[in-house]
Amino acid sequence: MAKAFFRLQKFLRRTQFLLFFLTAAYLMAGSLLLLQRTRLVLQQGSRGTPANQALPGLEEMSRVGIIDPRTLQSPHPGPRLLVGMGTLREPALDQQHSPHWLMSRNSELRQLRRRWFHRFTSDQEPLQRAGFKAMKHTAEHKGTYMGCFTHDSRERTLKGAVFYDLRKMTVAHCQEACAERAYSYAGLAYGAECYCGNTLPAAAAKPEECNSECKGEKGSVCGGVNRLSVYSVEQLRAGARPRRNVIYRGCFRAPENLTDTFPASLIQPNLTVEMCSEFCSKKEFPLAVIRGQECYCGYPTRHFPLRERTDGLHCSRAHNASSPAGGQYCLVYQTPVQDTRCTDRKFLTTKSKVFVALSSFPGAGNTWARHLIEHATGYYTGSYYFDGALYNKGFKGEKDHWRSRRTICVKTHESGKTEIEMFDSAILLIRNPYKSLMAEFNRKYAGHLGYATDRNWKSKEWPDFVNSYASWWASHVLEWLKYGKRLLVVHYEDLKQSLIPKLKEMVEFLNVTVTEDRLLCVENNRDGNFKRSGAKQKNFEPFTQEMKDLINRYILTVDEALRGRNFSGLPREYVPR
């Protein structure tokens, strides 16, 4: 008995010692973790910039007086990243605009933007949920449910327009989208895809086969797998009749044989723009062409590309739409109907052997360029990140892993040496920094389609933003010029001005062959889903003279670096003189 008691006492002493040891270890580990976190916060508040990164084109920069090579040998630490200050601050004048400072600062700015981006998305999520609830309670189904039909993606009956919303699609949303473009029917498939047209599908399906719940409306059915839930939108079409959806394209020389060029035509006494546009919309054509009493419907083609607009006087006062001129010239209008010759897209059937980046500074038009590339090539583009708003609007490559090589190219805003060297080649998209900064600031505070408020522009966030992001705009180009293996430099302004020639260059760089008609279709759908509606005019100048001086020096730095690599310099419209 005494022996058993002694063993129990010995075990309890060991257990007590073990518990004491574990408690002490736990407290020590917690203290170390707290100290480490405190140190990390202090480092993020005042982090030094590496001073040992390589420089692109230092000799060239020193020759033009942008950088003094002696500053590179300075033993002093690099400039601090000043974030959260009320005014613009710069490092010493002999270092402030050198490629070395710009590139070394870039890694800090990438981390900064990631934190801002995650904060922005987390802030927007409650707003998006609130908006979704409001939409759910106010949505009303208008029109008549026509039934469940089969849906063949290769031979679609409802082929007038295609919309995606993989998060918020509802029946009402699809109906309204089709009604705005003057279609008679709206069909929903896969719970998130909307198709418009003027002819019902021929093959009906069993009602229970339309069993996919709408992504944005629980309890509502939005088609199914290869199945369409079709609604008529006749009740809505009355609101879509006004001419606000008809866009005047201009006065053009008529082709030699209008009947051969355009597949549908109408001769009508006292023909008006509304009559011709409605006739072509019902025939599902995006162009309405008027010559005298004749109305023709069709697409832009190589025989009628809509590139050389003539003087409106040739069309006998083309602004008077009720009496368009005849003869050798014709008036051309864009109907609400979408040109669908280039809307089909898919992933690459085999993995790409060449890993191509579509690189740009944020706000430089990367999303627009992706829209153009996808519609021109017929293949999805990928992304180094994941943007739910883009995925929900049809950029399906957003969810594909960026290194899958199933996409034609991959969007990236990264500019570190490691990130750049992962790609075999890249399209480097450059935009006027003034426009890029404003576009990114708008996106940061109001999303892809919104505008920052006057309060945002006049707050201390704006000068802080310019101070941090202006240097990133320059360093992004400099690093891709230094580390990029094979580059095609595209200027946003040139792409906007000469869409077809520049898009041809991009498509050829991607080693894809496309038809002229497909490129013309892209031009007809050039804006995409993420174009801000007009330019919101501000009653004040957002850039101070100090900001302009800072940005102009970066522009000169980038312009000189481009020319040093035998690329054309920046567009003269925003290079300081």
Across the major sheet, the strand order is 1-7-3-4-2
Q: Give start-end ranges of low-pLDDT stretches.
A: 37-94, 116-139, 236-244, 318-326
Strand content: 5-15%
CATH architecture of the domain at 356-530 and 542-564: 3-Layer(aba) Sandwich
Number of strands: 17
Here the CATH topology of the domain at 356-530 and 542-564 equals Rossmann fold
Q: Supply the CATH superfamily name of the domain at 356-530 and 542-564.
A: P-loop containing nucleotide triphosphate hydrolases
Q: N- to C-terminal separation?
A: 102 Å
- Overall average residue pLDDT: 77
Q: Name the CATH class of the domain at 356-530 and 542-564.
A: Alpha Beta
Q: What gyration radius follows from the Cα positions, in whole Å?
A: 30 Å
Helix/strand-derived category reads: alpha+beta
Shape estimate: globular
Tell me roughly what share of residues is in helical segments: 40-55%
What is the tally of helical segments? Answer: 17
Largest sheet data: 5 strands, antiparallel
InterPro entries: P-loop_NTPase, Sialate-O-sulfotransferase, Sulfotransferase_dom, WSC_carb-bd
Domain WSC: 142-234, 245-342
Protein name: WSCD1 protein
Organism: Irena cyanogastra
